[in-house]
Each structure stands twice: as C-alpha cells, then as structure tokens.
C-alpha cells in the first residue's frame, strides 16, 4: 500500500499549506523538449526522496503543458500535485520514515451525522 493510498487525495487545506511551503523554492527538475523521459522520472523520484516537496519546471516548445503532464507525473512517481501554475508543477510525496513536512489533518465534514439526526428526531 502506497502512502497516497493511506492518505488519500490532498484536501484543499493541505494543498494550500504545501503551496505556501513551496513558494520560496526554486525548480529542482526540468522537463525539456523530449518530455517525460525515464531519466526525468528518476530525477523527480530522487528529489522527492530527498526533499518531499519540489518544483518541476516544464520547458520546451509548448508541445505539452504542465497541466497535461501533471497526472502522469503523479502516477509514475506515486506523488501528489499540490499546484500547477504556468509551466511549474509543485509535487509532494511524504516520507514514510521521519517525514519533515507534516500535513494538516483533514477536517471532518461539517454537518450532522445520521446518528445525531436520529437522536434529535427521537426527542
């Protein structure tokens, strides 16, 4: 079971937190005109092992946009895309051991549960 399966998709609050952390970062991996090659995927994977949160810059001749590459990067690197802004991806994959980044807990959905509704109805 991967960490993404354990955590589930990122919530809006978690994405916002990661975007704030990523703001001062510089891109550490660059995707050129050849696209998402095996060596680029290895570089992203290695950078995620080291940093947990990275920026990936998509350059080239606008053949493929960053938003088009985002799902493939997520799938191939078992990570989550926190943001796509222009030609830059913000990619997150937490470490299983000794994580540096601790995401905010997903909050419970507001509203009453079925049990609470039933209890109120019986009053």
Task: Considering the chains and any ligands shown, give keywords for the structure.
single chain, 123 residues, alpha+beta, Translation Initiation Factor IF3, four-stranded mixed sheet, 5 helices, 4 strands, 41% helix, globular, disordered N terminus
Radius of gyration: 18 Å
Overall helicity: 40-55%
* Count of runs of 4 or more consecutive helical residues: 5
**For this structure, what is the CATH homologous superfamily?**
YhbY-like
Assembly form of the protein: single chain
Low-confidence runs: 1-6
Strand order of the largest sheet: 1-2-4-3
Count of discrete structural domains: 1
Write a structural description.
With 123 residues, the chain is an alpha+beta fold. It has a single domain (3-121), classed as Translation Initiation Factor IF3 (2-Layer Sandwich), CATH 3.30.110.60. Helix content is 41%, strand content 16%. It has 5 helices and 4 strands. It has a 4-stranded mixed β-sheet, with helices on both faces. The longest helix is centred in the middle third of the chain and has 14 residues, at 38-51. It starts with a helix and ends with a helix.
Quick overview:
By secondary structure, the chain is of the alpha+beta class. It contains 5 helices and 4 strands. It has one domain (3-121): 2-Layer Sandwich (Translation Initiation Factor IF3).
How do the helices and strands line up, and which of them pair or pack?
Blueprint: H1 3-7, H2 12-22, E1 29-31, H3 38-51, E2 53-58, H4 66-77, E3 80-85, E4 88-92, H5 114-121
Parallel strand pairs: 1-2
Antiparallel strand pairs: 2-4, 3-4
């Amino acid at each position: 079971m991967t960490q993404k399966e354990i955590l589930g998709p990122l919530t809006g609050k978690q994405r916002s937190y990661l975007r704030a952390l990523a703001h001062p970062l510089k891109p550490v991996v660059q995707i050129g005109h050849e696209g998402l090659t095996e060596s680029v995927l290895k570089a992203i994977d290695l950078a995620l092992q080291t940093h947990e949160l990275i920026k990936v810059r998509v350059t080239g001749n606008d053949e493929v946009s960053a938003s088009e590459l985002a799902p493939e990067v997520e799938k191939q690197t078992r990570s989550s895309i926190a943001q796509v802004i222009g030609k830059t991806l913000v990619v997150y994959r937490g470490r299983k051991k000794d994580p540096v980044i601790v995401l905010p807990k997903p909050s419970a959905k507001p509203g009453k549960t079925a049990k609470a509704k039933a209890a109120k109805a019986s009053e």
